[in-house]
Amino acid sequence: MLEDPMKQNVLQPLDKAEFRNVVGHFASGVTIVTAAHDGVPYGATISAVTSLCDTPPMVLVCLNQKLGTHAAIRKARHFTINILGEDQASLAHTFATPGADKFADVAVHHRQHGPRLAEALAYLTCRVVDDLEGGTHRIFVAEVVEAQAGTGNPLSYYRGRFGHFVPYRNAMWRTTQADNAVSPH
Questions:
Q1: What is the gyration radius of the CA atoms in the chain, in angstroms?
Q2: pLDDT for 36-64, tens place per residue?
Q3: pLDDT digits (tens, 9 = 90+) for 100-114
Q4: Domain at 86, CATH number
Q5: Is residue 175 in some structural domain?
Q6: What does the buried/exposed string (b/e) look like for 89-112 if buried means 16 or more CB atoms within 10 Å of the residue's CB?
Q7: What distance in Å separates the CA atoms of residue 103 and residue 44, rounded to the nearest whole number?
Q8: What predicted TM-score, i.e. pTM, was given to this entire model?
């Protein structure tokens, strides 16, 4: 008779499909991370982006090491995070498609630190300060050197599908700018 693994107090390897299923329950925003190297623009749809701290302003971005965008960032040492609006799912699909002519018919501002998508909801221009390998991906730690936000709602990603964010009308919690603490409404 087989013993229950929980009774043995031994962690079993997690199945890749189950891991992806569980992590897929975490909703995230959708970004296109862009970079340029030797005058060639690169870009990829990335949801593994998070703020790290505000003093100095820093972010973490995780990219698959097989992506051309990954190689461009490693060489250029800077990139732009383009935060997509709720009406930009087709743009996210384009930049997620291998081999696609990603920048065709896309308004782009070519900047010193790489391309910035003109129609993005918001953007953060970043300078890499550190990076480390994490399995198939590389984690870039970067300082934000420029940022701007427009108006509108973000594109969201949840359980393998794009969607949009709908705030609660009578939210019980909000963040105050005075103390940056979450407090009751």
A1: 19
A2: 999 999 999 999 999 999 999 999 999 99
A3: 789 999 999 988 888
A4: 2.30.110.10
A5: no
A6: bebbebbbeeeeebbeebebeeee
A7: 11
A8: 0.84
